[in-house]
Design goal:
The protein is α/β, with parallel strands linked by helices. It contains nine helices and eight strands. It has a single domain, classed as TIM Barrel, CATH 3.20.20. Helix content is 44%, strand content 17%. The structure holds pyridoxal-5'-phosphate. Residues 31, 33, 54, 73, 154, 189-191, 205-209 line the site of pyridoxal-5'-phosphate.
């Protein structure tokens, strides 16, 4: 089977499962990290508009070649932020006020921003503590340039996925009482996007179910 047919079949399969799981609008972000730009070009031809990357260098390169909505969902390093703010349209992983200050300093265009929350309060997979979400959100709301889109999380390895997503849904609902515009919930990857949707995810980030498995170190 050629690559286009393979990607098309996988994409259609994922889209069908999303449609079955969702009673609300869900944005599918295809995570192309570690895959070549030729795959991004094929997916763009197949109608994909949203791509996600975890690394600045890869995102910078691919976004120059393929115009689309580019999402950054990796852990943020300060020294990469200047570049990330240039190519990304959406950042899913803001968890530190200092990073937002740098974003404001480097701004070239408006960004949609999701705040990443850590569900176990630890920082292994990124994310702010629940109580720190509110001051971050206030800083974004004060900026005239950028939009607070919602909350993002990656379930901790130590937690049952169901428990993690139920907790995330509650955190998001509480958060929206203060920030009603932040209606996005970025949650769900290849292994659990249908479950995440059942807990209210509006943005799913799916890589390997569409592109195949990545080499472990990447
Ligand atoms: C890699 C990654 C994804 C996609 O993971 P798959 O399991 O390949 O679908 C989604 N979100 C984040 C934060 C990631 O790092």
């Amino acid at each position: 089977m050629n690559r286009k047919t393979e990607l098309e079949n996988n994409l259609n399969d994922v889209k069908k499962k999303i449609a079955t799981a969702a009673k609300h609008d869900v944005t599918l972000i295809v995570v192309t990290k570690s895959f070549p730009v030729s795959d991004v070009e094929i997916l763009r031809e197949l109608g994909v508009m949203d791509f996600g990357e975890n690394r600045d260098a890869e995102g910078a390169e691919k976004s120059q070649i393929v115009p689309a909505t580019w999402h950054f969902q990796g852990q943020i390093q300060s020294n990469k932020l200047k570049s990330i703010t240039q190519w990304a349209n959406v950042i899913h992983s803001l968890d530190d006020l200092r990073h937002f200050e740098l974003i404001e300093k480097y701004t070239t265009h408006a960004l949609s921003i999701f705040l990443q929350v850590s569900l176990d309060g630890a920082h292994h997979r990124g994310g702010a503590k629940i109580k720190d979400l509110y001051s971050l959100a206030e800083a974004i709301e004060k900026s005239s340039e950028h939009t607070l889109s919602g909350i993002m999380a990656v379930p901790p390895l130590s937690m049952q996925t169901h428990t993690a997503y139920a907790q995330l849904q509650q955190i998001h609902q509480d958060f929206m009482k203060e920030f009603p515009g932040a209606s996005g919930l970025s949650a769900g990857m290849s292994g659990d996007y249908e479950m995440a949707i059942s807990y209210g995810a509006t943005h799913v980030r799916v890589g390997s179910s569409i592109l195949g498995s990545r080499s472990p170190q990447r």
